[in-house]
Amino acid sequence: LQKKGLTVKLAESQKEFDDFYNLLSQTASRQKYYIHPKDYYQKLWDLLNSKDMCQILTVYLNTTPLASWMFFTYEKTLYYPYGGSEDKHKNMFASNLLGWEAIKFGKDKGMDTFDMWGACDDLNDTKDPWWGFTNFKLKFGGTYVEYIDSYDFVLNKEAYKMFNLANNLRWKILKAIR
User: Fold this and answer.
1) What is the pTM of this model?
2) Is residue 100 a part of any domain in this protein?
3) Which of 27, 32, 79, 114 is the most exposed place for a label (fewest CB within 10 A)?
């Protein structure tokens, strides 16, 4: 596909995986959130791509990657948990193009649901920190589906207490050095 000099490509090489991770990293830095180390995504890609359960779509302007999303497929659902974009060419709306291409990709794969992972609870609360990307997702015309929250099932109260203590300390350190 080419539109306004943009090309959408399904990743097939290590370089294309690296393009995805670089855009994810740029977005995390710009939006001030934390992501997993690169080898986490690399392992997902290596293991699940070989089973046709993980794909990456990337929008390029010539050879410059502008936006990239990692998808998982399971049964009849396409899941979009990870993605990123660069800021310099945001007027090209590469993420919008990527969203429509993802929908087409899912349909071509026989998917009947596209789970875009995560939205704010109140769709009218423009002050919610999640409202921006919730609004972006809703523009594709889907239906808001609310799933039950996740919960921890504690088997060892002392170990769980220690884990939470260490995890809280880790987050304080990460926020302090950022």
Assistant:
1) 0.82
2) yes
3) 32
What is the count of structural domains for the chain? 1
pLDDT digits (tens, 9 = 90+) for 139-165: 778 787 787 777 888 999 999 999 999
Report how far residue 104's alpha carbon sits from residue 170's, in angstroms, rounded to the nearest whole number: 41
For residue 60, give its domain range: 2-115
Q: 């855009």: which residue's tokens? A: 23
Closest C-alpha among 120, 115, 101 to residue 143? 115
The domain that holds 57 is classified in CATH as 3.40.630.30
Domain-located, residue 129:
no
Q: Do 70 and 20 touch, CB atoms closer than 8 A? A: yes
pLDDT at 125: 79
Count of CB atoms situated within 10 Å of the CB of 82: 22
CA-CA distance, 117 to 150, in Å (whole number)? 13
Altogether, the residues listed in the chain come to a count of 178
Backbone torsion region of residue 141, taken as left when φ is above 0, otherwise alpha when ψ lies between -120 and 50, otherwise beta: left
**Position 135 in a domain:** no
Place of tokens 């959408």: 8
- The alpha carbon dihedral of 146, 129, 80, 37 has a sign of negative
pLDDT tens digits, one per residue of 78-135: 999 999 999 998 888 888 899 999 999 999 999 998 887 777 677 787 887 767 667 7
121 within some domain = no
